[in-house]
Every structure is written in structure tokens, then in C-alpha cells.
Amino acid sequence: MQVFFSEDHRLHFPQAELSGGQFVTPYERPSRVEYILRQLRERGFDQPADPGPCDMAPIRGLMDPGFLRFLETGWDEWIAAGMKGEMISATNPVRRTQMAREPRNIDGKLGYYCLAQETAITAGTWRAAQSSAASAQAAQRAVAEGAGAAFALCRPPGHHATADMFGGYCFLNNAAIVAQMFRDGGADRVAILDIDFHHGNGTQDIFYERGDVLFASIHGAPEDAFPYFLGYADETGAGAGEGANLNLPLLPGAGWDQWGSALDTAIARIRDFGPQALVVSLGVDAFKDDPISFFKLESGDFTRAGAAIARLNLPTVFCMEGGYAIEAVGINTVNVLEGFLNG
Ligand code: OKP
Ligand code: ZN
């Protein structure tokens, strides 16, 4: 399986994440990828290839132009406005501000485009986010050209980012970009399977009214887990997308019995949908020792998950998302990939 990875992820490493009223070292940190790279190396995977530059054309087709302008130029504006710290949003449009429009002031703009305040923007964030999307794009191209599957070792992750908001450690929605590239390349239907512990609100939002991209997600119930405001089972899609959104929320403590059977449900739905390509939002934070999650998967369960996904027998792009139990993140990620290859 080809692996794509860019060292430019290092350009994004905020000093602080707002967590429980404290500033802590971000959970989503550069060293996460070192553990994944080491496991790939030790277990005989191909040397990761650099993806080359990010192709902005498919991204501009999917994302809000004002949001992209903000990501591109926001940091310079912030510094020019005399701000001294990292970009952390303090004021956001909330209920009954549906008519909110982009402010001129950069602090206001930051709030306008931010969906969760734990995520800071720094000088290198935009370039890192582009390099992450570039890895996803290179993996898509490899699979479109006939590789059965490819792994994009994306960092920062993507599935919380909408067409016009960042947050939950995400800036550009890599999985959505890949799905759209498959569509643009001629696939009539594409499925996205999101196995990250957190609901992929961004991916859901981007495709919610579209019937050509199925989004299926297994995640911590929104009553109890970030991103809190989306991910309920009754969100089934709208308009042309009615029926093309499947949320499988699970309560705290869910282990393989429940999680594995939710995976079977998602896989059956994907099979019924009849896609020509599959994108997997591959988070491994459903692991029992994850510091910010509450499922109970064992490392061996990730191998079983990979094998189950392989039975779909689809051209597959894996995009890395979350996983914060730093010692195990490599083992669990590569278990999914190995389970898939042997499945
Ligand atoms: C990103 B991905 C920690 C709370 C963190 C944000 C979680 C983002 C997860 N005190 N809230 O889906 O793994
Ligand atoms: Zn997650």
C-alpha cells in the first residue's frame, strides 16, 4: 500500500490548546506521526512518498472562498493588527445569529470562521493544512490510477472542518476533498466511512444535501462527546441527500461488541449504496486508552476493523484523522491498514 506524507505538518504546532479552562500542550501534536511512521517502517510498508504541492483547484471548488482567504491571510492580518498570541477565537456567531456575516476586524473574522476554540492558528498552520490535503490528494491520484488502496498520513486532520469553518484540530477537510476528486474523476457514487471516535461534522455538513456521496460515521454520542451539536442518528440527509447520511452514535464504554456491530451496519449500508470508491476517515481514538475519548477498543480490534473494511472490495483511500494515546497511535493505525491488506 502506498503511503503519502509531508514533513510540512510540523509547521502547525500551537503552544496551547484550551482544555478544561487551562492552556495545555495540544493533544494533536507533531510527534503523533512519528509513532505511525515507525510502525509503518517496522512492519514493512513502502517508504512514505512526499505528495508534492497541494492542488488548490479541487479545494476551491468545495470550500467557501472567504474561508480560504481567511486561512491564507488571517495570520498576517492578526500580526498586522498588533495581536501578540496565537489565533484563538473569543467570539462566535451562535444561536439566532443566522444572518451573521464576515466582519472586517480580524478578531471578528477569526470567530466567524471558528467552530471550536481549542484550535489555535499559528504562522505555519495554513501551509501545514495544505500539505495534509496534498497527501490526501496524492493518495486519491494513486488509487484513481489503479492502486487498490493508499494511505494519506494527514496531519492536521480534517473531518471537523466544514466548507467555511475550522476547529476540532481541523482546517481543510481532507476526506471530503478526496471524495470530490473521485466524483470529478468520473465515479458516480462515493462513500465516506468515518471511524474516528468523534463525529465528522464537517464531512457530514459538506455532503448533507447530496445524494452522490454517502457519509457513514461511528462516534461518541453527541450528548456526551465533541463536537456535541451534530452526529445524532436522526440526521439522515436532506433534499437530494435524504438517506445518504448514516450516524451511528454509541454511548460511553462501547467496546468491540457494539462498535463492531455498528461497523457491520455501516458497511452493509455502503454496500447497498453501490459506490465506486471508498474514503476512510481513519481515526484511532476509539482506543481504550485514548485520553480524550470514551470507547474501549483494544489494539487487536483495529485489525478486525481493517479486515471488515476490506470485504467491501472497493478502491480505498485512508485519510488519517485522530488518535491521541501517543504510544499506541502507530500500532492501532497500522493494525487497520494491515487488517485491510490481509482481510
Ligand atoms: C479531533 B479528531 C480536549 C477536548 C478536545 C476537540 C477534539 C477534536 C478531535 N479537552 N476537543 O476528531 O480526533
Ligand atoms: Zn477524533
UniProtKB/TrEMBL annotation:
CDD domains: HDAC_classII_APAH. Keywords: Hydrolase, Metal-binding, Zinc. Belongs to the histone deacetylase family. Coiled coil: none annotated. Its cofactor is Zn(2+). Residues 28-336 form the Histone deacetylase domain. It comes from the Bacteria. SUPFAM superfamilies: Arginase/deacetylase. This is Histone deacetylase family protein. It holds the Pfam family Hist_deacetyl.
